[in-house]
Amino acid sequence: MNDLPAASTSVNNADLGAGRDGQSSRPTHIVLLGIPNTGKTTLFNRLCGLRHKTANFPGTTLESRIGTVRTGSGPLRLDDLPGVYSIELDQHEASVCRQSLEGVSAASGQPLRAPDAVCVVLDATSLPRNLQLLGEALRRRLPTVIAVNMIDLARRRGIVINTVALEKAIGAPVVAVSARTGEGIDRLTRALASPRYATTTPPSDPLGERNWVDRLAQIAEADFALRDDKLTDRLDLVFTHPVLGVLVFASVMTGVFWALFRLATIPMDFIDSMFGALGARASGALPDGLIAHLIVDGVIPGVGGAAVFLPQICLLFFLFSLLEDTGYLARASFVVDRVLRPFGLPGHAFIPLLSSHACALPGIMAARAIPDRRERITTILVAPFMTCSARLPVYVLLTTLLFRDRPALAALAFTGCYALGALAGIFSALIFRRTILRGEGRPMALELPSYKRPSVRGALIQAWDRGMVFLKKAGSVILAISIVLWWLAAYPIAQPSSDSIELRQAAQTIAQTEPTRAQEMISQADASDATRQLQSSFAGMLGRAVEPALAPIGFDWRISIGVLSSFAAREVFVSTMAVALTGSGDIEGEGILARVRDAKRDDGVTPVFTRATAWSLLVFFVLAMQCLPTLVITAREAGGWKWSGLQFVWMTSVAYTASLITITICHAMGVT
Amino acid sequence: MTPPEITPRTVVPLTQLRRGDRGVITEARTDSDSRALLGAMGLRPNEPIRLCRHGEPCIVLTGACESCRIGLTRKLANCVFVEVAL
Amino acid sequence: MTRALATTTQPAASFPVGDWQFWVVTLVFALAIAWLGWNVLPIRQILRKGRAAPKRTTLTVEGQRPAARAKDH
After folding, report:
1. In this predicted complex, what is the ipTM?
2. What's the confidence (pLDDT) of residue A19?
3. How many of the other CB atoms lie within 10 Å of CB of B12?
4. CB contact B34 to A (< 8 Å)
5. CATH number of this structure's domain A29-223, picked from the four choices 3.40.50.2000, 3.10.310.70, 3.40.50.300, 3.30.2130.10
6. Which end of chain A lies in a sparser environment, N or C, as judged by fewer CB atoms within 10 Å?
């Protein structure tokens, strides 16, 4: 029965330090290899749980998850390599897998050495397809364990895998598992602690390899039946239909958006208030001084500014992971491909673009799934055009100023902002794909996984993983920028104005007799000092320096400071404007909005926010690149700072031009 | 548009099969990278397939028990040639 | 944004160099700038531009790797 060729090298187990039964010495480092959609990630999560971290392969955007498996004989490091159909393909992922198996490449921070063993994950529901990769892995002559995953699904389909015969034929342990239900995981964990060298490897010529695969498939599949999966066929017809498919897609995405902006608001508000309370506590607890000011006004808002996005990012990846697990997303990719292809974007781009509506950072990182380099870079370049959550406080401020008691019009303007951003994004993609990123895109070939119940556990782990990556990558940048901006706005210290001095002296006089009035006068003096401080600081000087460039689009020096400061985080613009115009950072405070609306420019007559300026600023914020963390991630993911530079220049130019056109039209129509 | 009448033993691109038609892949007339990827996914010469969905995307079942479902854009499906089964 | 630092009627120094806390916050500011410049902005790449880094190459024959060539033929 076992007529497979013996292992093609002349080494024997004794030479390799193996025991008499072909077992290797106890391994400490194993890599997980498998084709896409074999449940490799689910298996990794099942084996390692939260005991893992994510690291990049040097010079690439590919990630490896590195976890720890607890076996009876001690902990074992497990590396989850990228899913590949073959490690001999001329593809980035395949190259990374090859180099990891050879020990010439490792994820950042990991030692450069070949793994002690390899665990190949096979899909029990379509075993023959996986055997080419198994053969390639066996040729590497590493101790091996084979995990035949999705055994529960195979059983339901009437597919019987003869793991005993397979193990006898190959020589390495073969364990049937279900990563979803946990079946066989204990046996697999024991097998990982004692992998064995295979006694057979496929010939290197294509025909010989094909025969080897066919014979192994015959040995493994003792029984199977042709399945007529009518339900899957019908669902595929609906989900990929040119009309129905689009309707289903629109409904699903509307649901995702609703969940994102409704459900995530609750924890976001909680985190916001928690950091607000922390700031107040710190302010009370720390002795008054500059360090206390740095902590209360720089560090805490900086950390809070990043943390407040966590619920949205985690929820977004949780929902996408669930959708992907059901098998629907692969079908949706084809639906969207029809819409995006005329603009030079592939169907794969819809997840990064959709994710960018929460935050561009995870959206840009999600672009790694796009196989074609030109399409991937185009998606990364245009992702920040999608209206992210950070822009929303700015939209709220400006639409409130523009449509004071007309909420319906404000809502319409809101929707218009989303549409403008998306249109600018896809037309920018079209321009890039016709010019600097010209070329035929890679036509889409995707495996359509079976429809199945999604794994909530897997989705939670994925959400946690992505959230932590965001916090580490973006959080540190936002914190550093917040500290820098705090210092630039705090120095040089401005002398109090004569008005402020008089107010304080008057307040001291009436403190005993009219304490409430005295407190009001002190608040007014504080507001005056805060505005003067911002004006005189280095940040104010920068604002004045860029004012001539922004004056044509209606921005004065105060708005210019806001635009510059929003490079740390867009929502910082709102509190900056509040301080610049009213002296208070509390934009929700009573009367603040009215004072912002009534604030005057240096001439004392013209409002800071004319209607034309508000429209121009709204358009500017929709289209401008104002997020340094995004530029950083673009440089990393696209492969160089030239792409970040292009992204910044392109988006700023588009925003400036659009604002100029807007303010010109407003003035022509008599809108002031 | 309905596909033209196909006689047994005809070699045609995937796009000309009807839903439910079975066949055996003969070749993929595309660049070597795409050919290698299609082969690794299971769409290689002498592999039996069954067409599930005609058009965009073109969905085929591959594998001995037709358990693997692969979706292709029309452009790529036009490059994969199949000998139609009797 | 920053609240007013001067809460009395007394004129404050533009840079309170006599206050040790000023030096601490300025050091933190300098460290933040240095961290951004080194880890975030391309300063490290610009400084390394002169030095040619050793490159790893892959053997190819007629533009294809030997294993891929064997499969094609």
Report:
1. 0.89
2. 39
3. 18
4. yes
5. 3.40.50.300
6. N
